[in-house]
User: Fold this.
Amino acid sequence: MAASLATHGSRSLGAALLGIISLVACSPDRDLADDESSTADTETDADHTDTDAPTWWRDVEPVVRTACVTCHSPDNIGPFSLETYDEFLALAPILAPAIESGQMPPWPPGDDCNTYANDRSLSDDQQELLLSYMAGDMPEGDPADSPPDGPPAREVVPDAVLEMAEPYTPTSADDYRCFTMPWPEDITEDRFVTALEVYPGERSLVHHVIMFVVEADQADDFLDLDANDPGPGYTCFGGPGTAPGLPPTWLGAWVPGLEAGFAPEGVGLRVTPGSMLIMQVHYHATPGMDLADRSSIGVEMQASVDRPAVILPMTNIAWLAGNGAMHIPAGDPDVTHETTIDNTHPVMANLIANGLGAPADADLEIHDGGLHMHLFGKRGRLQVRDKGGGNEACIVDVPRWDFNWQSSYLLEQPLILSPDRELHLQCWWDNSAENQPFVDGVQLEPSDLDWGDRTLDEMCLGIMYITAAK
Assistant:
């Protein structure tokens, strides 16, 4: 089941909103003519219309509906709507550069890594269609020419629905909040989650959601985090917080436009009785908003599956101490650290034996993969390779890391991790003076960085959904 995590590039496009009023005021009126001569010209042009030229309804609207409107629609997280012809027409001057550069719709993986079932990028033909349309007269066409809708997306039929305990009103444009959700008490045996759907309570606020599972023996530690933070939930940034033992595992995620996540047939993630779910929500509240959110999730479960799945959070255990093993020097624009793991590593051996119930020398299937860094990340790469290097097979490679557009990526074909192969993770960072964040309008001075949960710490994490091979 793909766990996608994605945030929106509304900051960069949002600046262009300053020009929207002038764009609307200056946009051409395609229904009125200024004088008799222009009316005659229009009629002559209409008599010679190229029937193959793209129109809004026949060609462009279907692409915009699937690639843009999932964020850019009323009451959604996008800073402006692109639902109608008039809206698209008015905003075309700022849309064209973003589409041509590949900034929108955001799709971070490099083209030469792998192919993904949840690819949100425009195809070359779609990009060419939109750019040529915006470079021309942008005719509206006839609504009757709009192609029929495709089949509806598959929906989760939940066996359980878990909801935030109370509404929460975010206080800033980048508000990361975690909410504890106890696993239903009446589920007294192991269950395997085979599908998950997030139901955002207030779509105009919810930027993305990540769901984590905390084992029963750690639940009290996370309830303490909640109790010690005033208001509903507790503040969290890089993850749901820490407790003694292994970190919480990912269960699923949501970004606008992402359909419900379904595991492959006969596959599911185990959740044990007494577990705690944690919903991490990134809120994007603009000034003046006074809205509350109460999001929830629905899960489909089975008592047993053919192949249990695990989500492997891969990193170098030595980095977690934050004692310099992942040192990122102040002022250095190009720092890299890398690590490998194979089936003999204690974390992998435990997951194979106890999580998957497979023999130590089993072939494994990697169904999706993602990366996680913080604000100074520059590039990240996760791959399968022969032990010691060579014969690489790319899981995901993000050549231009953007914390606001991180996700995980569902492979069209699972990759095999055999006992004679290893996983290789590498991250790059830019800690130069030019890449420092601003706090209260002042750019910070560079300082040494290391592993940590805080905003100005860093991480290097690979995340994979793994099963035993068929």
Confidence is low (pLDDT under 50) at residues 1-49. Residues 19 and 212 are 41 Å apart (CA to CA). The longest strand covers residues 377-386. The longest helix spans residues 85-101.
